[in-house]
Automatic annotation (TrEMBL):
Protein name, entry field: Type II toxin-antitoxin system RelE/ParE family toxin
Taxonomic classification: Bacteria, Bacillati, Bacillota, Clostridia, Eubacteriales
Species this chain originates from: Heliobacterium mobile
Keywords of the record: Toxin-antitoxin system
Length: 87
């Protein structure tokens, strides 16, 4: 069941995703669709010290995102490997 939310990708996230192989893009896309479920599916954690920032882990990839409940938008801010995403 979908919450009616929409995914919005930041330029940095799009650039990272476009550099990945097709099977990696598909795996990440499937993981991101889990954010639209009730309840959201995936390895999701809140980021300590950052109000409203969340982390989704998909295999070795980390995706940082914010949720705007009023506008029903999920902003995909960045995605990278663990060493690069937290910089």
């Amino acid at each position: 069941m979908s919450l009616g939310f929409k995914l919005i990708y930041h330029k940095e996230a799009i650039e990272f995703l476009s550099k990945q192989e097709k099977y990696v893009q598909d795996r990440i896309a499937l993981g991101l669709k889990g954010l639209l479920q009730i309840p959201p599916r995936g390895d999701i954690k809140t980021m300590k010290g950052y109000n409203g920032l969340y982390r989704l882990r998909i295999g070795t990839f980390r995706i940082l995102f914010e949720i705007n409940h009023v506008e029903k938008l999920i902003y995909i801010l960045t995605m990278d490997f663990p060493g690069g995403v937290y910089k």
